[in-house]
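Support request, please re-run this one:
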Amino acid sequence: MVQRMASKRQKTTVYLDIESLETIERAAKERGRSSASMVREALALYAGQLDRPLPRSTGVVHSGRSDLSQRVESILAQGLGRKRSEP
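Re-run finished. Output below.
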C-alpha cells in the first residue's frame, strides 16, 4: 500500500463558469476522483509550465500587424483555404 505524505493545504474559493464546472465534475466522476483533486492537478501542471523559459524564437519576428492576436482565427482560416504553391 502506498502512503502519501500529508501536505499542508489552504482552503480557497474559485469562481468558475457553469460549463467549466460541469466539465470538471464529469471528468472527475469518470475517473473516480474528486473535483478538487482534478483542479489541484490541473493547477500543478499549469504552474509547472510557468517555470519553463519561452523558446528563444518567441518574439523574434515582427509581423507588422497590431491586430494579429485578435484576428488569429480568421487569418488562419484564410490561410488554410488557400492552395499551397509547389516548391
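Residues 18-50 form one domain. Residues 35-50 form the longest helix (16 residues).
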